Protein: Opsin-1
Amino acid sequence: MIVDAFEEVLKKTSLIPVPTSHPSHVAPIPSVLPTPIDAQFIGDSGKKTLWVVFVLMLIASAGFTALSWRVPLSKRLYHTITTMITIFAALSYFAMATGHGISVQKITIREQHDHVPDTFQEVHRQVFWARYVDWSLTTPLLILDLGLLAGMSGGHIFMAIVADLIMVLTGLFAALGEEGTPQKWGWYTIACIAYLFVVWHLALNGGANATAKGPKLRGFFVSIAAYTLILWTAYPIVWGLADGSRKIGVDGEVIAYAVLDVLAKGVFGAWLLITHANLRESDVELNGFWANGLNRDGAVRLGEDDGA
Structure:
């Protein structure tokens, strides 16, 4: 009887929960979510576009070189400048296509709320700084081509090139600028003002000098200069939509710039050289060191007395 009573007590007490060091029911702990990251990187279409433009710039460089063989060295100034433009562009696109000349800009976007804590989002977007290196080399050469075609003075060409370099470099500073600060759009504004100086020099001084060289050359200069300036006006628009406000993705940015570069460099160069071949007023002939090197008149003489 005692054993049966003891077993009955054990059965009843086994249903009582045994206290433990950890509570069985814990109130939910609010989770801390990590800051979401929006990674904006180039995709397959953008990479293919970079390779296509690289090949197109190589083909253009080879074609411009072949055209230069048809004229004497003293008349190859346009050919040399234009070939350098497409070679620099090809090097830039090769760098970008192989993953070089690219940095990642980290941007923190703060979203303010009235009744809950503010939220933050990180944006990691690729910036192709190799493109700005390309522009700092090729756009001055494009201005030199147009300045020589119009017969502009060296002083005006120099000032237009300086304004152009300011435009490109401040565009790079703006692309790498911190989000939400006035400096970013301040650099962009400076770049736009510098661009207006480039337009002013080419339109005013270039147009006046081209007019003095005859109606045929003036008509050609006005056409090719207007074509160039229209394309150049599209560059800051693409920048504002891409690096500026990020309204378009990296692939869209790459494709837009690629189309503009092909038109502003490859098509520009072909148009200039083909028309130049049939337009005598556009000739710029360089002799002396350019064509003949250091001849007897220009050679440095060593071992001679100064007449003292």
Notes: The two ends are 143 Å apart (CA to CA). Residues 182-212 form the longest helix (31 residues). The chain is about 65% helix and 5% strand. The beta strands are 37-40, 103-111, 119-127.
